[in-house]
Specification:
The chain is of the alpha/beta class and 193 residues long. The protein has five helices and ten strands. The structure holds guanosine-5'-triphosphate (GTP) and magnesium ion.
């Protein structure tokens, strides 16, 4: 559920970019920031990066205007992908309204993708979210890599057929806005139900 503040007249949704190390989560957020900065006031905060690896999380609030006098805000986060930050990943999922799972399309990374997704499902369950019905978008990133993973491979591996997918090259901004639009639509529609 989004966080509703009657005092501040604000509805805040939390979107989390999840996935294995180096799949392109921070790059997604940085691209969204570049595209939005001209139109809406937003600031991207990257905490404790070392050699471009996220050590805790990235955070970016985006205010999208008001509905019935309420400011609609999307608070976007990325998790740190390196294996030993499991505790941080779990914490960052707390209160999430939706996730983008960023897949690294390099075939050699398939197992890391799968392991990361399975842990994400466990982490979601630990907060009593049902991963089957939780708003999710699968982003097949790094489509520019040679012999990129055929679409559908990942869904078969983790049995999540039917989850919406987007192909992306985050470094070029391709598929990045489509991904966030797809997820935010799911998240808001669910809130209306
Ligand atoms: N070729 C290619 N490289 C990409 C793409 N997206 C991201 N990268 C590169 O992959 C590397 C890791 O990107 P990040 O966005 O930092 O990855 P991350 O998922 O945030 O990594 P962690 O914070 O360690 O979990 C960087 O060198 C990016 O430039 C893509 O679509 N194609
Ligand atoms: Mg990162």
């Amino acid at each position: 559920m989004p966080h509703i503040s009657y005092e501040r007249r604000e509805i805040a949704f939390k979107l989390v970019y999840y996935g294995p190390g180096m799949s392109g989560k921070t790059t997604n957020l940085a691209q969204i920031h570049r595209r939005l900065a001209a139109e809406v006031k937003t600031e991207m905060i990257s905490l404790d990066t070392h050699e471009d690896r996220t050590l805790f999380f990235d955070f970016m609030p985006v205010e999208l205007g008001t509905i019935d006098g309420y400011m609609i805000r999307f608070n976007m986060y990325t998790v740190p992908g390196q294996v030993y930050y499991e505790a941080s990943r779990r914490l960052i999922l707390d209160g999430a309204d939706g996730v983008v799972f960023v897949i690294d399309s390099q075939p050699a990374r398939l197992e890391e993708n799968v392991m990361s997704y399975k842990r994400m499902e466990q982490n979601l369950r630990s907060y009593k979210y049902d991963p089957r019905s939780f708003p999710t978008v699968l982003q097949y990133n790094k489509r520019d890599c040679p012999s990129a993973l055929p679409l559908g491979t990942f869904e078969r591996e983790v049995s999540c057929q039917g989850v919406p997918t987007v192909e992306a090259i985050a470094t070029e901004g391709r598929g990045v806005m489509e991904t966030v639009r797809l997820l935010s639509r799911q998240v808001v529609e669910r809130f209306h139900l």
